[in-house]
User: What shape does this take?
Amino acid sequence: MLREGATADYTDRGQLPQRLPQNLLHPGRFIWHYILQRRGQFATLAATVMLAAGCAVAVQYQMKLLVDAMTGPVRSERVAWAVLSVFIGLIATESVLWRISGWLTCRTTVPAGVRMRLDLFEHLSGHSLRYFADNLAGSLGQRITGTAGAFGVLTNTAVWRVAPPLVDFVGATLIFSVIDGRMAVAVGAYVVVATAGLIAVGKKGRSLHAAYYGEQSAVAGELTDVISNMWAVKAFSARKREWERLRNEFEREASIQRKSWMYTERTRACYDIAVWIMATVMLCWAVSDWSRGTITPGDVVVISSLMFRILHGSRDVAIAVVDMFQQLGYIEDTIRAVGQTHSITDSTGAPAIIPGGGTVEFRDVSFAYEGKHTVLHHVDLAIRSGEKIGVVGPSGAGKTSIVNLIQRLYEPQSGEVLIDGQAVGRVTQDSLRAVISVVPQEIMLFHRSVLDNIRFGRPEASDDEIYRAARAAHCDAFVGRLPQGYATMLGERGVKLSGGQRQRIGIARALLKDSPLLILDEATSALDTESEIHVHRNMVELLRRRTVIAVAHRLSTLAAFDRILVIHQGQIVEQGTPAELRRRGTLFARMWRLQAEGLSMSEAKTSKSMG
Assistant: This one.
């Protein structure tokens, strides 16, 4: 922490190894992208599956030869034993090939699912804060996890339920053409027409499946939201109310699920009827030819076994394709939700920022949140390296907008923001944020240990550096009282800590990051006044060579700062040292006086109640 004279490699922090291609917003292209990444493994898997399925077809033909050798016009015990040996060998080979294909499926699908989730997370993390405000975290997490699962289901379906019947069909068509060419034509025509029909029906049902998966993700997000806010549910006696609300959500999801499910079942029922009709026709045909002596008993056996294998296989293929459309619907829903175009993007070939002393400049900046009135009006501002700046003003004046624009969390409608002379819109976002440490009002902590939460600011930091940062942020006292000290797990969003304790952890994390520019956005609002003043003074002293921009409500905490900016209605209406602004008797002086009077009244009431 605070390594004097150290030169941190800010440009490499937070760089991700791969980005999700922007042209993969179609589920088919999305899946094909990950297959091509492991084309060798998937090609080997496909070849193994086709060989295994080919062995199964060859077994059926060997059965015909065995029956003919045992019952045909010229019976031959030697031929029967030879055919039986091949028959047994093919069964063993088929079993070995299927086990190899299972191993290959695992070796290809699981890593592809990992890469897919990482790429989706990378794309998700590139969205603006507005996106995360509009989408539930639980829903987004389920979509990413479920997409990898859907890809695994698609792969398994293709390997075990689609490829073998297709090989059966090709092999059976060849065998049928040897026995009776008309049968081959009839079976081929039926399979093509029936499968094409089911695929067409499956495509029509895709919107139903996509609607169900979208609703499923939304409901999961609602449930996660309620669980994560269980304190509010209990505090406002809302258990029954939330139970009723969730019941309505679950019932609506169930209604959409039934529509998707029953559509698939109706499709399967229609195909079962078609299979029964075709099987009856083909078997009667085969027995009729046998009765006329045009085919052998072995031919009848192989026609019967292959007929049922083809018909059931074609049904399995068609149903599997319908199921695959369901999984594609899930992936499509995820791509539609997660794969949206980023509202803030790096320009092509944007360089990493070159870190300097932390100067900040606003040049005629105007800004408005989407669909709202203008928040900042033609703001001009220059902050020198190492300067300690306080930003104050009434609620809604634009204070937080200024710090958001510095971090490029939003884009200005006009004007330009520069850090160390470089426009923030022309450098990579990751490198920009690597040179900025931020402590927001609402500290977000992970369900990790105290040590890991502080170390998040600089993962390569030693334990000693973390302890020094914690002491500087006055964390030591309360951490020492935790059950496992710095090893204590903090719970989701740090629920085991008070607001003030979370803020101190956040301050320690920012101090450890040790960036040239530190932004404090109401960073000590949960502390008592005395502690807040003490922490601010410590930070000013510790960060004397860093630039500090602090948005604060309590004006007294900024007494040691170099300059105060007073924001009102989106403009800087005055600036100067705290003493200068108080002497002027303008907006800052009035705010100071009101806060001083409010504090005096509060202290008087406390003394009276104690007396």
